Amino acid sequence: MTKRDGVTILVDGENVTVPEGATILDACKAAAVDTPTICYADNLTPVNVCRVCVVDVEGSRTLVPSCSRPAEDGMEVQTDSERVQHSRKMVLEFLGTGVDLSQADELHRWIDHYGADPDRYQADGVELETMDEEPKVQDNLYIRDYDKCVLCYKCVEACGDDAQHTYAISIAGRGYGARISTEFDVTLPDSACVYCGNCVAVCPTNALQFKSEFDLRAVGDWRPEDQTVTRTVCSYCGVGCNLELHVQDNEIVKCTSPDDHSVTMGNLCIKGRFGYQYVNNRDQSAEPGD
Predict the structure, then answer these.
(1) Which of 242, 224, 234, 239 is nearest to 279 (CA)?
(2) DSSP state, 161?
(3) Can you tell me the distance from the alpha carbon of 9 to that of 81, in angstroms, rounded to the nearest whole number?
(4) Domain ranges of the chain
(5) Within the chain, which residues score under 50 in pLDDT?
(6) pTM passes above 0.85
(7) Domain 142-280 has CATH 2.20.25.90
(8) How many Å is the Cα radius of gyration of the chain?
């Protein structure tokens, strides 16, 4: 029995062939169909919690998550049917009623696209309810702001089997009180966290963000439009991890890693992610050899 070269499905009326085992989302990408995602990332295992990537599959009673449903030969998929649009709009609206999405730039693009209006659920004179917690600032590396968390599980996956295998964080609590937490809700320095920052890298809403970015935002001086991004190789060891240095006003303000790099796949260790301060703290007046 020979393995097939691929499967062919119909995406919005167009035949698309993808490798066997590929998902509907992979087929959508191959067909150049832009699909909203929140809990999905190329370097993480799909967990099917956000439901914003749902599509209409012929013969299926319900909408199916495109990020995890395998493409099957002969499958007919609609990505922009009326019920797909309605479902995605409702998901975005419900998220916006209880979560601060002010720094979720990609989600705002889809909110505008579907005409989602979270404020329409707000009664006159009544503020929408959020976690209403101050950001947790426990060190100089990164902060946690639960008011911005959509419980997409991406940070949990990055901390667990998909990358770091540290298992420092998971979902705690139930219902509206559910949140990402360390074991027994201890502080980050007292937890199993190794400060790789891979959770920060995958967060779609900035609920997890670099302390350097948080500080600049606090004084109104975070200017991504003025930043340059330069790819380089980490100088700490010989593994060859690629870094993307975000520079503003001639200072590195954060460090990320490209998802498509064969060595890092977007992941770094504490040195690669946060160990750039020696560059910013160099003495500009020192002479060579001093």
Answers:
(1) 234
(2) T
(3) 17
(4) 142-280
(5) 1-2
(6) yes
(7) yes
(8) 21
